[in-house]
Amino acid sequence: MVKRLHEMGVRSEHAYVAGVVSIGLALASWFASRRGENAGLDRADRWGIFVGEWAPTFFALGNGLRTYEKD
Question: Which keywords belong to this entry (predicted)?
Fold first, then answer.
């Protein structure tokens, strides 16, 4: 999978940036859900956690791509 991503032009820097952006999106979705919906804090927390779980995936892909780029 890492090889295929590398062949498609995805670099480790792209994955790291996506990880940082996903952290910002997690905060933004939490604030938006908290203010925009009447579902309460629990639902806002679930939105924030859902989007926040993307960051470790992007960082892990970044590490894999960085290792592949060194070889």
Answer: Membrane, Transmembrane, Transmembrane helix
Tokens of 20: 């940082």
DSSP 71: -
Confidence category of residue 37, pLDDT binned at 50, 70, 90: low
pTM across the whole model: 0.78
Which pLDDT score, from 0 to 100, does residue 38 have? 67
More confident residue, 33 or 62: 62
Distances (CA, A) of 49 to 7, 20, 30, 36, 57: 31, 15, 8, 17, 13
Q: What residues does each domain of the chain span?
A: 15-70
**Which residues have C-beta within 8 Å of that of residue 49, sequence separation ≥ 6?**
26
CA–CA dist 57, 15 (Å, integer): 9
